[in-house]
Amino acid sequence: MLGYRCVMRKLVVPVLPVLAACLASALALGTGAGCSRANDKDAAAERAPAKIATVSVDELDQMLANHACQAVDANGDTTRKRMGVIPGAVLLTDMESIDQLPADKAKNLVFYCTNTSCGASHVAAEKAITAGYTHVKVLPDGIAGWVKAGKKTASI
Predict the structure, then answer these.
(1) What is the DSSP letter of 154?
(2) pTM, two decimal places
(3) Quick check: is 36 in a domain?
(4) Is residue 68 part of a domain?
(5) Which of 53, 101, 111, 137 shows its CA 20 to 30 Å from the CA of 45?
């Protein structure tokens, strides 16, 4: 029996740090910000190109009230069901669904996802820029910031 313990210790002990890292990653994803597309804050920062302008919750609210932009929701269904959506927003079905955007490529578009830890809005905004849209911005605070500010949401 002593030999069995030695063998198991040699097999299991080196694997424990790897298992712990995998478990930590899984927990971080499962309890993250709620963004169904990107939960890693570092990855979100990498994907956030400096050339995409940002707007605050109040700025977007004013722009929408003046019909000066189109909000674009880059969240997944889980986040939309849990937090709602900005009324009138285009709901992207996936990151490749640029065809859902307005035909007018000069229209002001403001992309949002869950919050500052989510990079989905930046990814979608970058795809819109690549597709030729010229007035693209991002709401970094996302739907979480919108809700926290007490702004009106629509349910799906």
Answers:
(1) B
(2) 0.71
(3) no
(4) yes
(5) 101
